[in-house]
C-alpha cells in the first residue's frame, strides 16, 4: 500500500545510495591506529550479509507498471552495486592480508596476523552466487539488462586492477567470456 515502496526510482536510488555509502565508509574504515580486526570484520560482514543479500534480492525485481518493466531499472542498479561491492571486498581483503604479512614479523601483532589470515570477505559461495546471478541476467529478454550483465561479468573476470578470486571454473568462464571490448552483449 505504500507508494514509496512501489516506486522503482526510489528503489534504484536506495540501491545506488547504500552502495555509495559502503564505498565511502570502506575507504575510510581503519585509518586510525586504534582500529581492530573485530571492527573491520563487523563492518564488512554487515555489507556482505545485509547489503549484498539485498542486492541479490533486487535482481528478482520484475515490477511492471504503465512504463513497462521498471523492475529492470532496479536489476541494473543491483548488478552495478554487486560489482562495486565485489571490488570493495577484494581490495579490502588484499589490504588486510598485506597488513597481516607486515604484522606477522612483529610478536606484538602476531594475533592480528593470525586472525587476519582467517578473514575472508569474498569466498567461493559468494562468487558462485554472483556469477550465477549475473549469468541469469545476461540471458534476460531486455537488451540493456543483457548488455549490463555481460559487461559486468567480463569486467569481474578480466579486471587487471582488482583481481576477483574464488571464481570456480575461472579458466572455462574466461574462454566463454573473453576480454574483448567489441562483444555486443545486447
Automatic annotation (TrEMBL):
Record protein name field: Tubulin-folding cofactor D C-terminal domain-containing protein
Sample GO molecular function, one term: GTPase activator activity
What is the superkingdom listed in this entry's lineage? Eukaryota
Which Pfam families does the record match to this protein? TFCD_C
Q: Where is the Tubulin-folding cofactor D C-terminal domain?
A: 129-185
**GO terms under biological process:** microtubule cytoskeleton organization; post-chaperonin tubulin folding pathway; tubulin complex assembly
Alphabetical list of InterPro entries matching this protein? TBCD, TBCD_C
Amino acid at each position: 500500500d505504500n507508494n514509496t515502496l512501489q516506486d522503482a526510482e526510489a528503489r534504484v536510488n536506495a540501491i545506488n545510495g547504500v552502495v555509495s555509502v559502503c564505498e565511502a565508509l570502506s575507504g575510510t574504515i581503519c585509518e586510525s591506529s586504534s582500529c581492530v580486526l573485530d571492527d573491520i570484520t563487523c563492518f564488512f560482514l554487515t555489507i556482505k550479509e545485509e547489503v549484498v543479500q539485498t542486492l541479490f534480492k533486487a535482481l528478482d525485481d520484475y515490477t511492471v507498471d504503465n512504463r513497462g518493466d521498471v523492475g529492470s531499472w532496479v536489476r541494473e542498479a543491483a548488478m552495478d552495486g554487486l560489482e562495486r561491492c565485489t571490488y570493495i571486498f577484494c581490495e579490502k581483503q588484499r589490504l588486510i592480508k598485506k597488513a597481516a604479512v607486515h604484522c606477522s614479523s612483529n610478536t606484538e601483532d602476531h594475533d592480528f596476523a593470525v586472525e587476519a589470515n582467517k578473514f575472508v570477505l569474498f569466498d567461493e559461495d559468494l562468487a558462485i552466487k554472483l556469477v550465477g546471478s549475473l549469468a541469469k541476467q545476461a540471458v534476460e529478454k531486455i537488451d540493456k539488462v543483457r548488455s549490463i550483465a555481460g559487461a559486468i561479468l567480463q569486467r569481474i573476470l578480466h579486471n587487471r586492477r582488482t583481481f576477483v578470486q574464488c571464481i570456480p571454473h575461472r579458466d572455462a568462464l574466461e574462454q566463454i567470456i573473453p576480454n574483448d571490448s567489441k562483444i555486443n552483449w545486447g
